[in-house]
User: What shape does this take?
Amino acid sequence: MSRLNYHHLHYFWRVATLGNLTEAARQLHVSQSALSAQIRALEESMDTQLFERSGRRLLLTATGQRVLGYANDIFSRGEELESLLRHGIEPEYQQLRIGVLSTMSRNFIEGFIAPLIGQPKVRFSLHARGMANLLDGLASHQFDLILTNSNVAAEGQDSLWQSQLLARQPLAVVGPPEQKPEAEFPQGYEGRRWVLPASGTELRSAFDGFCSRWHYEPDVQAEADDMAMLRLLARDTGALTVLPTVVVKDEIAQGTLLEFMTLPNVFESFYAVTVKRQFVSPVLTELLARQSLRS
Assistant: This one.
């Protein structure tokens, strides 16, 4: 028989969500000492610590963060069920929590969430993180999906991850109009300054390989592993750069930057990653179904 006491879990959920023991006790109509005792009982039954104290504050431990993710799923679905049974109505809105890789193009992210904007019964939140943090958050149900430009390899039929390719963007050489080359690569690019993706990234490795084949040595003025920063450098330094055109689509539309050439057979891929669940929210199912592969 399961040792999990859902009454205790509910108390934990309210304290973790509110972040304040006093306020949680007031809303639950119990004393602080009784609430603390219920949470301690939950920790003892699970043989793990969920909170740690920092002065007067209660902070979630790493395990507490994971438990909170599951509790969010359990009690948000329970509230929807109660509403349906009591009133015969669907929940007022659906919540979607999206984790995004902190270095990804903001323009691509905005395009992905565009179908959600204006839907009165949908609320969503965006959380920028590093890749390891995103996967941890997805595994602990803090996120419903994550957006990344790195594929998450599946490891057999029992793999936790489900990865969907959303788009493939060609890598382009971009720069201000006054820097437009008068000849083909590499002759037309001699003496030009560059701002490039950081060394070690897939995009930089692809560009370095391309340059090597043509025996071209770029004059690198700056590097950045963040697409938003690379966009600003491309716009403001007068140098050439290499990135997917979706990153600078506004600047290209305004004429402040031009696409000079695309690199052959070099793409940046964008993925949506989820975990296998028995229940997937309708809004998430619809959003992923509407994403067509863009190349």
User: Anything to note?
Assistant: The mean pLDDT is 85. The two ends are 52 Å apart (CA to CA). Residues 62-87 form the longest helix (26 residues). The first strand starts at residue 51 and ends at 54.
